[in-house]
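Data availability (excerpt). The following record was deposited with the supplementary files.
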Amino acid sequence: MDATFIQQFFNALQLGSLYALIALGYTMVYGVLLLINFAHGDIFMFGAFMGVLGSWVFGWGFVPTLILSMLATALLGVTVERVAYKPLRAASRLSAVITALAVGLLLENGMLALTGADPRKYPDDFFATQVYQIGSVSISTVKLLVIILAFALFVALFLFVRRTKWGMAMRAISYDKFAVPLMGVSQDRIISLTFAIGTGLGAAAGILWGVAYPASLDTYMGMLVGWKAFIAAVVGGIGDIRGAVIGGMILGFVEIFVPYWGQGIGVSSTWRDPVAFALLLIILVIRPTGIFGVARRQKV
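Predicted structure:
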C-alpha cells in the first residue's frame, strides 16, 4: 500500500476524531432537549483557551491542564444551560436558537476582550512529541494521543449512556421529558449532567486541537470548526452517539483525501470545503434524518 496514502489515512483519522468529539456535544444536547446548541463551537474555543491558562499561567502539563479545561468548561456549560436555556424550555425553538447564537457571540467577544486578537499556542514542552518512523510513514505521538484518547472517550460515553442509570435517565428524558419526573427522576439534574458531559468533551477536543495544530488558537476558531462539527452530527444522525462519530469521521476523511486524490486532476486544497459540504448535502438528500437518525416531531 502507498506510504503516502497511509500517512493521509492517519491525518484523516486525527481530524475526524476531533470533529467527532465536538459533534458529540451537539448530539447529546439535542438528544435530551431537542435543542441545537449553536454556542457549542465557542465552548470548544473556551476549552482550548483554558488550556492556554493552565499551561502558560499555572505552568501545568498536559494531563492537569486537560482536567482543568474539562471541569471549567463543564461548569460553563451548566451555567449557560441554567441561565440562558432553562427559562426557554417552554418557549419556541426559534427563541432557543437565537439565544444560543447570542451566547456564542458573548463567548467570542468576551474572550477577545480578555486575551486580545493575537493567535495563541501552547508551550513547546506542553506535550512531549516523538515521531515514529515505520518504513516511509511517520506517526507522531500527537496523532496517537488524539486518536486513542478520542476513541477512549467515545467508548466511555457510549457505555455510560447505555449501561448506567444516569444514561438510562438521559435516554428516557429524550423519549418523554414529562413522564420521567413523575418517576422521581430530577429533570434539571439530568439536563445539567448532559450539558456538563457535552461541554467537557468539547473542552477535550479544544485541548487536543491546540496540541495537534499549534498556533491555531484564536477567539473565532470555534465558528468554522463548530459549524463543521454540527454538520457532521446532522449527517450521522443528530441525537445518536454513533452518528456523531461516523459523521465526524466522514467529514475528516473527505477533507483530507479530496486534496490528496484531486492533486492529479488539478484540484487544490481550496476545494476541500466545497467538495466536503457538497458530499454531505448529497447524503442528507438521500437520507434527510442522517445515517443513524430517526424522524422526531418538534415544537416550532
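Summary of structural features: The mean pLDDT is 88.
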